[in-house]
Amino acid sequence: MFGESRMRWFLLVVVSLGLGLVTGESSYNHYRLPTALRPQKYYLRILTQLENPEDFRFSGNVKIIIAALQNTKNITLHSKDLTIDETQTTVRQISGEGKTNNCVTSTAVNPTHNFYTLNTCQELLAGHVYELNLHFSAELNRQLEGYYRSSYVDPVANETRWISITQFEPASARLAFPSFDEPGYKAPFVITLGYHKKYTGLSNMPVKETKTHESLPDYIWTEFQESLPMSTYLVAFSVNDFSHKPSSLPNGTLFRTWARSSAVDQCDYAAEFGPQVIQYYEQLFGTKLPLAKIDQLALPDFNIGAMENWGLLTFRETALLFSPEFSSLKDKQELSNIVAHELAHQWFGNLVTMKWWTDLWLKEGFATYVATLGVEYIHPEWRSKQLESLSNLLNIFRKDSLETSHPISRPIEMVSQITESFDEISYEKGSSVLRMMHLFLGEEAFRSGLKSYLERFAYRNAEQDDLWESLTQAAHKTGALAKNFDIKTIMDSWTLQTGYPVITVTRDYTERTAKLSQERYLLNTDISRVHRRECWWVPLSYTTQAEKDFNNTAPKAWMECSQTGDRLEKTIQDLPGPDQWVIFNNQLSSPYKVNYDSQNWKLLIKTLNSEEFQTIHVINRAQIIDDILYLAWTGEQNYDIAVQVINYLQREQELLPWKAAFDNLKLLNRIVRQTPNFEFFKSYMKKLITPLYEHLNGINDTFSSIEQQDQVLLKTMVVNWACQYQVADCVPQALAYYRNWRSEANPDEKNPVPINVRSTVYCTSIKHGSDEDWEFLWTRYKKSNVAAEKLTILTALGCSREVWVLQRYLELTFVPKEGIRKQDSKRAFQAVAQTEVGFLLAKKYFMDNLDFISKFYHQLVRSMDPLLESLQLQVFIRKDYNEFKDFVSNSQGSLKGSEKAIRQSLETMLTNVQWKERNYYQFIRAIQQYLKAA
């Protein structure tokens, strides 16, 4: 699954039951299902009626073949918000001695864990097989989870069209049919869908047969082939009137990409890219795709980014549709990553599934990592692997430096905890530690370990120790790892502990050695690091000024932990003298930060600020920038040193170091722009950016002549910052582009603004423009047929500096009939919150309307998280921090399910407060001195 920011959310609600047997409160209250029974197969029939907008419902029945592993007097499964017609419930024995009739005496529910328990007349006996038949119905909801409805407007007929779709991960199959809704209960499914013949029915498998409905005129039943054994969260079905773009794989596997008819022309790229990435994975994993068909479906309403249902992958339109006239290179790369991520799950997640959600990262971290390999293989000209690896690391360095972060592999005891795990730690940190392992093991051991893991656990469930075992065997066999090392010991230190280390390198220039020590890096300086005992097994790669061998990412040594888990210091021998630097962590191959002694920093600054700066690998230049700005933030280095490091950027013309710099400077900008000394920061930023802005020919449309694609992304990024700081001609040029667009006779068909700078041009024009400029863009939003363009516009509309415009925009955001879809409302709110003027308005709006916003998102409770996160970056005064702390403590009811986001937001605000109190004047002095010297 690829969340919006890669996340997913739910709320627990009481099961509603129909009339029938006596229903009581269940005494069974463990969070996992009892283990006495195991489903062998599901026969699921669902009838969906989409013709009457006044009454959207579905009804169905499920026949579950169940094997008894132990004697038991009841059947416990999951059901949520389903009306079960208990008059039609049957239980019968279908194999084993003395087939006796059975029946149900009573039922019970546990609303906390969504359990539905049927107490049986006779005991179910171990070794026997039973058939349970249940009839149920429910509303086809609008909550973007379970089995729900979505709509779009057909532009030709100007009519609203309705479709239905499922989203079951992690625990919402129970909203669509009673089931053993845990990943460990894999079983084959035979699915039959009933619907009006004017629609198409899709499910995980190809169609087996279609028949007319026995009583409803113009209705049909479509039965699909029996599926491979799969977990309930991967079951999927849809009734829709979409069109598709066919493609296929060399082995004949059918591959189709579906969308609304008016958007099917935007399916071309995904239809071509998907089969290519599948072929790459078959080669990488040494395991063929076991499916006869794959459908990719672009949905108008979808709460997350995308979902890997086996054989029927579902996407937000932005994540699957690409329009050469409206989508930027950045959009294309993000789309490629998401498609590659979901297709990687067909192996990691679907073929081999985690036993329980504790190991969610096993599939999400893997899909994130191998997607970068797949995209790089198909589009080497993008050089995207380096960018993705760095972006993942920059993300987790921020998130995982919070005390309130969590381990990659964490115990799960409630559904709400599962949904919390769909975050940067499971995805990006999971990916980063797998990349580290790939780099220290080498290609042969990594591939053969994966292949044996997939073969051993195909169609079954596994946990992380199973993967470690397969990889250790491969590593010992190939000699990639010494026999006295094992993957479990090394990797447990990264997956079972929160955080990451900062390694302090203290060189002895006379002895030509270095002492290395580690401790957990924490942003919160109120917490003493002295008493902390975390220890990581760290593969140490390094190079010297004479060698400059950055391509060797194999460890030359290891930082080890004692048997009791204590940190052990490491001494490195044979280093150069005082005239040469040393750089640790070649190409940032492991997720840790490095702090050097002052002489080594001086040597690095000297090289960076000379013509020789490119002799340091581009990823390590990005690493040095990120590390020094973090270390200065927490006071381990001073800002004089940090400013001397980043001054070199005036020479830098590569994307990655600028990405690392902008990610850090953005945080400083959000605080400093609210203070009287912002003028100095502004002058400093102008000075830093101007040489590169001019080198890239400013905001002019030179994109077609740029040969290296990552330079397109660099130009996009630099132009954005240049307009913010009014560098050179950036603002007047942006306004001229926008005026030209406004003067077009048909602005929805013809847009003269260069695609890759549209977000900057729109934002700049709204910021410096009139009310008419805002209305013009809002009209374009409502008329656009391209989801990527709509999102670009949605963000730009928040750039206004007019209080009344922003206030009105905040109110429009949470009114569905205004045309902003529920899934995009977070983006509109964030757009307002991240500006200077908008921040205070958004914060007040959030605090004044919390109950209303909470009801708006209903069960999608973690939709509140992005709203909280957009407010945290600009609070830096202790009084404001305390006010927000009081507010959230008094609003726990409306923020239920967002506890982790609240803790992390408060901690981030506190670290801002600490920075302002400790570093603000030191930072301003450092940039003032630089401006004077320059």
TrEMBL record:
Designated name of the protein: Aminopeptidase
Cellular compartment(s): Cell membrane; Membrane
CDD domains per the UniProt record, alphabetical: M1_APN-Q_like
Binding site for substrate: E169, G305, A306, M307, E308, N309, R862
Active site, UniProt feature: E342 (proton acceptor)
EC class of the enzyme, as a word: hydrolase
Cofactor annotation: Zn(2+)
